[in-house]
Amino acid sequence: MHFKVDIQADVKKVYNTMLDKDTFIQWTSVFNPSSDMVGNWEKGSRILFTGINDDGEKEGTIGIVKTNIVNEYVSIEYIGLIDGDREVTNGPEIKDWVGARENYSFEQKGEITTVAVDVDVTEDMLRYFSQTYAKALEKLKTICEL
Predict the structure, then answer these.
(1) What pLDDT sits at residue 98?
(2) Which end of the chain, N or C, is surrounded by fewer C-beta atoms within 10 Å?
(3) What is the pLDDT of residue 121?
(4) DSSP code of 99?
(5) Which pLDDT score, from 0 to 100, does residue 13 have?
(6) Which pLDDT does position 36 carry in this prediction?
């Protein structure tokens, strides 16, 4: 899936706002109000994106930062899922997630920075992401333009 938003802010501010933990959990709260991130954005780093589900259990994804070109491009490859206290990195329940990518591109023209997101999603997540990702990027835009 592909999403795009134009933000009236400098690319450095947009990049930092999108990835800084404090503001990352703000814009990603659209996906899950308890959104959290553990790890860092350095190339090769392991990063966890978590939240609490409706049953009160922790869930989320495990990724590896494949590329991080500051103020230009970030790519994450997913290698597993979080299920409660378990990290699931093999088996049938994650076959559709392993190798999936989420890519963020940043481009500044004048006073506008365009953020483009390309994300691989499973069939069962298509509707959810099509309804939610644009809202999350609008929240990022609001935070950046404050």
Answers:
(1) 85
(2) C
(3) 87
(4) T
(5) 98
(6) 97
Report the pLDDT value the prediction gives residue 93, as an integer from 0 to 100: 83
Using CA atoms, how far apart are residues 80 and 89, in angstroms rounded to an integer?
A: 4
117-138 burial, b at 16+ Cβ within 10 Å, e below that, comes to bebebeeebeeebeeebeebbe
What sign does the CA torsion over 70, 74, 78, 79 have?
Answer: negative
Q: List b or e across 18-42, with b for residues whose CB sees 16 or more CB atoms inside 10 angstroms.
A: bbeeebbbbbbebbbeebbbeeebe
d(CA 65, CA 51): 19
Query: Which residue stretches of the chain have pLDDT < 50?
Result: none
**What fold characterizes domain 2-144?**
Alpha-D-Glucose-1,6-Bisphosphate; Chain A, domain 4 (3.30.530)
Q: Under DSSP, is residue 87 helix (H, G, I), strand (E, B) or coil? A: strand
Residue 45: how many other CB atoms lie within 10 Å:
14
DSSP-assigned beta bridge partners for residue 114: 6, 107
Question: Structural domain boundaries of the chain?
Answer: 2-144
Q: What is the pLDDT of residue 125?
A: 83
